[in-house]
Amino acid sequence: MAEPGAPTIHGIIAYPVTHFTAEGVVDARRLAALVDRLVCSGVHAIAALGSTGELAYLDEAEFDTAVDTAVAAVSGRLPVVLGVSDVTTAKTIRRALRATCRC
């Protein structure tokens, strides 16, 4: 059951790909630009780290950067759904708590 006042998830939910630089680090500038473009194009929600495949390969610093970047780029304009899964329960819980703090 949703919390009172929580946004309803509906319509088109965009799954942005997390960009990386040539040096192999999360390209926050490109990710932010992509998320902003998706928001401005009329989607109803953003699902960062959803099902595009990169989540399983991110270390915790990369995860934090991607989450912080996506949430900041949305800037409260739409609901944000964040992928948090990992192969360990402890990391999944850590990621879920981190995501909860950012949304």
UniProtKB/TrEMBL annotation:
PANTHER family: 4-HYDROXY-2-OXOGLUTARATE ALDOLASE, MITOCHONDRIAL, DIHYDRODIPICOLINATE SYNTHASE. One of its GO terms (cellular component) is cytosol. It comes from Mycobacterium shottsii. This is Dihydrodipicolinate synthase family protein. The keyword Transmembrane helix does not apply. Keywords: Lyase. InterPro entries: Aldolase_TIM, DapA-like. One of its GO terms (molecular function) is 4-hydroxy-tetrahydrodipicolinate synthase activity. CDD domains: DHDPS-like. The keyword Lyase applies. It holds the Pfam family DHDPS. Belongs to the DapA family.
